[in-house]
Design a protein that fits this description.
Two copies of one chain form a homodimer. By secondary structure, chain A is of the alpha/beta class. The first copy, chain A, is built from eleven helices and 14 strands. In chain A, the strands form three sheets. In chain A, strands 3-2-1-4-14-13-5 form a seven-stranded mixed β-sheet, sandwiched between helices. A five-stranded mixed β-sheet of chain A has the order 6-7-12-8-9, sandwiched between helices. In chain A, helix 3 (81-87) crosses helix 5, helix 4 packs parallel to helix 5 (114-125) and helix 6 crosses helix 7. At the A-B interface, helix 8 and helix 9 of A face helix 8 and helix 9 of B.
Chain lengths: 350, 350
């Protein structure tokens, strides 16, 4: 049973997209799951009435599983993150996240200001012990199984230790959400050999190699991402600095529509078949990207999210909450920390 | 008139691919251009005889413009760069580059050990004054005009000053080789705003903004690469650290064959039409990547280069030599250096 708080004011298409996305999600989720739409109640109620009175009429049965929670303020896309959180404690973002901190919800989804969501999530939910930064995990489609790439934009100039933290977070996510037991982890670099890469990557390689409990594949390269496979086998998790991850992610996202254009000219009438083939590259299919490392669930959706993208983000949120992923992260980090704690000296029984 | 030294022993398909590539290039180049095939003369002569006696018989007229230059040693793909240069002074790589240093050739092309080629080029040709590192420039196809991305793998952990050096090198290359007068330069980052990016990128942004003589577009993002355009207009040059550039390059290179596979299943018989459309993404179309910053021309080709790829690499080498690009780089760098030299104090005429 998961109670998901959805930021009804966040994103370019709010309130329509989050409200419609909530109805779509509830129709697909088992009946015990509920949604809190957080924002200006007048605006949300009107959006619900409009949708249910028109094209979403078939979703009337879902209405009973929706609660509308008042939050008078709105954090805009141009608000500075930290200023917004401090200055707008009654915003949908802050109120939505606080419900989780207070035990009134199990997850939060927003298509609003990403910087503000990261800062507020870290401030309100707090980071797990032994973490210095949270990371955004993105699911990338490949020609084999999808893989998780992190960090895809929360951090730049990451240390080797932080890259190792991302590896631990990504492994738990791949196991709990993608259902990969003992997931494989690759470190994104510019050559297979351990000595290839920048200083942080080379150091992280040595640390990951030494870490038991992680199925470390060694370095993977940009060429391994489209197929989701490297010479040592299938890749479940790709670890990288948020600068590199964000460049790759935005490049990948832009390619699908770009290539559609190129092929449309070459193929004309075959466009429909192609659109089908490109579905694998459609990001709204995977909804939002979780901010990993916080104690709880916070899903970051694109500002341009459609109702379908929000629906999928909500489903990821439910999956993370139901799998108790945050608990598993805590456990995994504690295990890793124990490995580094010097054991009590053993007295030999002479 | 350009004399191109080609490493006949370099690459997975040597000597056949470099020898055949030389014949293909000469057939397309005006008659004043010549090629030196550098390597084990016995091996090269045999390859020439075999090719001209069989499928390359039509290229017999080109034979007179080919000289075979003896170099008994071969640097292998697994040789450590600096060890190879010192230990194998009679290798095709070192002998080929020395011809340029001695004024016997105008350019060098190799599909051999990239690390060795970078080190030998820097050691033998020397860097232009005011440069701390050379950079590999790659031409990326986009849906508009191709763009130059550098560095695509020669350096990691670049300083802001080095990113600025890459911008100057890339601008000269775009002008001389791609024929773009006053080329636009974008700095690859994770947001348009000057404060987005890692420490080196943020600092480089400020330095590039202050540099006259460069048409600086500001930050560009991963999403701008496939279209070759950002919100401020078309992009001729993308500047980045070699770690990021190499990841993007390898990712891009792997996508074309990967997507071909995806589409082949969806489209069956339309495969041929698609192959045509994908030609834009075919790297062998652009041959090799020049190592910019050295005094001379050194083109790095893929180890897997086909004769066609080598042909195109030779044509790029000729273009760079004919345009006197290395001289232009020297001039551009001197101009930039002059800007930073404090001018003599002006006495006001009171």
């Amino acid at each position: 049973m998961a109670r998901v708080a959805v930021d009804a004011m966040g994103g370019d298409r709010a309130p329509r997209a989050p409200v419609a996305g909530a109805l779509l999600a509830l129709a697909e989720l088992p009946p015990e799951h509920t949604i809190d739409l957080v924002g200006q109640t007048g605006v949300i109620d009107r959006a619900l009435d409009e949708l249910l009175g028109d094209e979403f009429a078939a979703y009337a049965p879902q209405r009973a599983r929706v609660r509308v929670i008042e939050a008078p303020d709105v954090i805009t896309m141009s608000d500075k993150p930290r200023v917004a959180i401090r200055g707008k404690p009654h915003s949908s973002m802050v109120v939505g996240l606080r419900r989780q901190a207070n035990g009134e919800a199990d997850a939060f989804v927003s298509a609003g200001n990403t910087g503000a969501q990261m800062a507020a999530s870290q401030h309100i939910l707090k980071l797990h012990a032994d973490l210095t930064r949270p990371a955004i995990a993105t699911i990338l489609p490949t020609t084999s199984k999808p893989l998780v790439m992190l960090d895809s934009g929360a951090n730049v100039d990451c240390s080797a230790e932080e890259l190792v933290q991302f590896a631990r977070l990504g492994a738990v996510y791949a196991e709990d959400v993608l259902g990969r037991p003992n997931p494989t982890v690759g470190l994104l670099s510019i050559g297979e050999e351990p000595e290839k890469g920048n200083a942080a990557v080379r150091e992280a390689h040595q640390m990951l190699r030494a870490e038991s409990g992680l199925a470390f594949l060694g370095n993977v390269e940009g060429r391994d991402i489209p197929t989701g496979t490297c010479a040592r086998g299938p890749i479940d998790v790709v670890v990288c600095d948020g600068f590199v991850g964000n460049v790759v992610l935005k490049f990948y996202e832009a390619l699908a529509p770009t290539l559609m254009g190129v092929f449309a000219e070459a193929l004309g009438a075959e466009r429909e078949t192609l659109a089908q083939a490109f579905k694998e590259l459609d990001y709204s299919e995977y909804g939002g990207a979780p901010l990993l490392g916080v104690k709880g669930v916070s899903i970051i959706s694109h500002g341009t999210s459609t109702p379908r993208a929000i629906k999928n983000a909500i489903k990821v949120a439910v999956q993370m909450a139901d799998a108790r992923m945050s608990e598993h992260v805590g456990k995994r980090l504690a295990e890793a920390a124990a490995l580094y704690t010097p054991a009590a000296p053993v007295t030999s029984p002479t």
